[in-house]
């Protein structure tokens, strides 16, 4: 079974980058399920019996990442753990304020419990917990499976052949003018993207693979040198065998160098500035690691040779586009620095434990700069700053301590190794960590499942290769603590597997994860959305889509055929969406308008209209500068609302001022002349319905 798990993991390492970087639901779900099932098999095999005492124990390999894995796992669980208000207020008063804006006011929906989580939207944090568990178990499982040099070389060749294929595929794709990634038509221009949609993530894959190739080539070359040194002390037969071995190693070195050159060309032609710069700096660090070791000068020569050959071939192919992109480095640096500064504002509001890992895209619009108006940012181009905002001081401290402990243990073992293979491959794994650490300052490679999986695999290879001669395992007796630990690990795996399957089944019925490669139905029928909710009721977007679906059905009916029950159902679904995710301003604006449709009810002015006011105030709190449509809806609402009040009413002027403010914000966001002309006409007609007077119209459009 161990062999089966090894080749299953190998399959996932190879297939993940080929499936668009595993960014789509079907790809990362496949990755998660294979790894989790493999983890269960490994865990079962690690339950062993002591022949001397007839007692069972759990074998756990020492791999240096337990603090890092467990501390962030605990942080994620804490972020989704309900807390009483006084603790929530102490840790994050902003989280408590947002909680209050999520409470349904109509009495139709179930009011949430008094205890609530510190994060405003639970669902992304749960998905992050699944991913982190999968990556952690993959690292620990692969480290145990890589118990021989043969297996390590198999996985090294698998990674490098995959990367070489991806680079060649990208070159053919770009220079043939086909502009297809498998079946998906994608205009890549002069950039190589291989099987990735984004050049920066392809560049990240190439950079890591290039460093791994350099380490592997240096390892094989150093082994060849050692073989020649010992050849003169052997018998004639042994010399003949060694001669054949040297020839084999020579061919092997050439093949590895060939793959390295192809990968290096792919890296340069990707035109990913962050990937190129980080790989170059990491290559320099790799050279320093080799220089620090005795008898490793040849390894430095191999790195120089690989770099030289790659540069010659890249120059012959043409790197004008790559060079041109470096000319705009200062402009893009300014943009990404602005993102980072805004994330510091988020961090200042949620300093202790952050906004929740995975919640960036929902919280950020409120902080978005005017220069980035109408931009939808799922990830910011700085993984470090995004992680700081999402996990707070506690998260970044846990991460830095965990990495420091791993590096301390790694270098402690690495310095004791004399085997060129262990020295070179181990050094390249550290160079890969440095590469991705630098690249993550200007991009979001750590959010790409295939790239994070590759980082995990290479780090596991590095630790395994330096630990081959002396493996350490913890043996925990399955009595009290051991039995509880075993139950907890199995429970974590089963729970994570269950979440992965439920998420996948829900997304089949109602897609919410972006996937441009398939022609998915983004507005599925009512029955399919209900099925999605049955599988996974924690995704707020399902409830919002359900409300939108019923609104479409209602709007097709005549006024006489519409019933109050349908309207109450729409309100209930929207309130459920807001209860799950209060950060989405569009949910609040739609709910406000739906409240106003209850104008026939006797308590409309006392209950439903004030509730609509509150919903619009909540929408304004979260709106930011991402969506101009939301500001139009809010402005229109306050025009309508002001008309329900007399000018003598002290609420009239604030209502009208709000309308004017949102209209101005709308024009600030929509600066295209033809759009502004169209909007002004639309707004003039709308205001004229309530105030047929140019005095009011001119306050807005002039």
| Rg (CA only) | 29 Å
Tally of helical segments: 27
Structural class from helices and strands?
Answer: mainly alpha
Q: In what range is the share of β-strand residues?
A: under 5%
- What is the β-strand count? 5
**Average pLDDT rating:** 89
Roughly how much helix do the residues carry, as a percent range?
A: over 70%
Termini, distance in Å? 74 Å
In the sheet with the most strands, the strands line up as: 1-2-5
> What low-confidence regions span 5 or more consecutive residues with pLDDT below 50?
none
Shape label? globular
Main beta-sheet strand count, sense and barrel state: 3 strands, antiparallel
Write the layout of secondary structure elements.
Elements: H1 2-18, H2 25-45, E1 47-50, E2 55-61, H3 66-79, H4 85-91, H5 93-100, H6 122-145, H7 149-176, E3 180-181, E4 184-185, H8 199-231, H9 236-269, H10 273-291, H11 297-317, H12 320-326, H13 329-349, H14 360-363, H15 383-414, H16 420-439, H17 449-466, E5 473-477, H18 481-509, H19 526-535, H20 540-555, H21 564-580, H22 585-596, H23 604-623, H24 628-643, H25 652-669, H26 673-690, H27 694-701
Antiparallel strand pairs: 1-2, 2-5, 3-4
Helix pairs in contact: 1-2, 1-7, 2-6, 2-18, 3-6, 3-15, 4-5, 6-17, 6-18, 7-8, 7-9, 7-17, 8-9, 8-10, 8-11, 8-16, 8-17, 9-11, 10-11, 10-16, 13-15, 16-17, 18-19, 19-20, 20-21, 21-22, 22-23, 22-24, 23-24, 24-25, 24-26, 26-27
């Amino acid at each position: 079974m161990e062999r089966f798990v090894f080749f299953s993991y190998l399959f996932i390492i190879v297939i993940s980058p080929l499936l668009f970087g595993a960014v789509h639901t079907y790809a990362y779900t496949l990755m998660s399920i294979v790894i989790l099932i493999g983890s269960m098999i490994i865990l079962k095999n690690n339950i062993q019996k002591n022949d001397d005492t007839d007692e069972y124990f759990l074998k756990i390999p020492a791999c240096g990442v337990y603090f890092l894995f467990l501390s962030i796992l605990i942080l994620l669980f804490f972020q989704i753990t309900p807390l009483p208000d006084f603790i929530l207020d102490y840790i994050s008063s902003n989280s408590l304020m947002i909680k209050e804006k999520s409470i349904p006011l109509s009495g139709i929906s179930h009011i949430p419990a008094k205890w609530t989580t510190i994060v405003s939207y639970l669902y992304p944090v749960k998905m992050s917990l699944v991913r982190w568990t999968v990556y952690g178990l993959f690292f620990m499982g692969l480290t145990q499976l890589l118990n021989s040099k043969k297996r390590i070389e198999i996985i090294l060749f698998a990674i490098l052949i995959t990367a070489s294929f991806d680079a060649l595929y990208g070159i053919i794709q770009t220079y043939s003018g086909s502009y297809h990634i498998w079946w998906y038509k994608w205009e890549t221009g002069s950039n190589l993207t291989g099987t990735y949609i984004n050049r920066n993530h392809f560049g990240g894959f190439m950079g890591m693979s290039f460093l791994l190739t350099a380490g592997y080539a240096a390892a094989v070359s150093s082994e060849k040198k050692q073989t020649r040194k010992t050849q003169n002390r052997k018998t004639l037969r042994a010399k003949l065998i060694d001669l054949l071995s040297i020839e084999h190693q020579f061919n092997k070195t050439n093949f590895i160098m060939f793959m390295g050159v192809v990968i290096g060309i792919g890296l340069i032609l990707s035109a990913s500035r962050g990937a190129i710069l980080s790989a170059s700096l990491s290559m320099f660090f790799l050279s320093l690691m080799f220089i620090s070791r005795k008898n490793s000068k040849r390894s430095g020569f191999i790195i120089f040779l690989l770099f030289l050959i790659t540069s010659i071939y890249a120059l012959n192919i043409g790197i004008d586009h790559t060079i041109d992109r470096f000319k705009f480095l200062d402009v893009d640096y300014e943009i990404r620095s602005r993102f980072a500064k805004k994330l510091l504002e988020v961090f200042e509001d949620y300093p202790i434990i952050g906004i929740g890992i995975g919640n960036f895209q929902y919280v950020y619009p409120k902080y978005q700069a005017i220069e980035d108006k109408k931009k939808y940012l799922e990830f910011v181009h700085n993984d470090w700053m995004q992680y700081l905002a999402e996990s707070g001081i506690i998260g970044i401290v846990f991460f830095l301590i965990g990495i420091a402990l791993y590096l301390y243990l790694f270098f402690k073992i690495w310095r004791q190794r004399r085997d060129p293979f262990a020295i070179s491959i181990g050094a390249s794994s550290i160079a890969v960590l440095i590469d991705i650490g630098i690249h993550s300052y200007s991009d979001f490679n750590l959010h790409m499942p295939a790239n994070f999986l590759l980082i995990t695999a290479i780090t596991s290879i590095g630790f395994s290769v330096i630990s081959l001669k002396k493996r350490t395992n913890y043996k925990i007796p399955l009595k009290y603590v051991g039995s509880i630990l075993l139950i907890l690990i199995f429970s974590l795996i089963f729970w994570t597997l269950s979440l992965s399957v439920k998420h996948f089944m829900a997304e089949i019925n109602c897609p919410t994860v972006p996937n441009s490669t398939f022609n998915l139905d983004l507005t599925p029928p009512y029955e399919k959305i209900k099925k999605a909710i049955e599988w996974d009721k924690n995704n707020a977007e399902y409830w919002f889509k359900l409300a939108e679906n019923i609104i479409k059905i209602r709007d097709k009916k005549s006024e006489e055929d519409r019933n109050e029950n349908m309207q109450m159902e729409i309100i209930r679904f929207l309130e459920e969406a807001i209860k799950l995710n209060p950060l989405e301003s569009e949910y609040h604006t739609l709910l406000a308008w739906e409240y106003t449709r209850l104008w026939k009810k006797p308590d409309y002015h006392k209950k439903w209209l004030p509730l609509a006011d509150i919903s619009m105030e909540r929408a304004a709190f979260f709106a930011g500068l991402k969506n101009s449509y939301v500001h139009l809806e809010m402005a229109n609402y306050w025009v309508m609302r002001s008309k329900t009040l007399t000018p003598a009413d002290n609420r009239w002027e604030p209502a009208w001022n709000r309308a004017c403010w949102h209209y101005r914000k709308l024009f600030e966001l929509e600066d295209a002349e033809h759009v502004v002309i169209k909007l002004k006409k639309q707004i003039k007609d709308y205001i004229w319905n309530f105030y047929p007077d140019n005095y009011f119209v001119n306050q807005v459009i002039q």
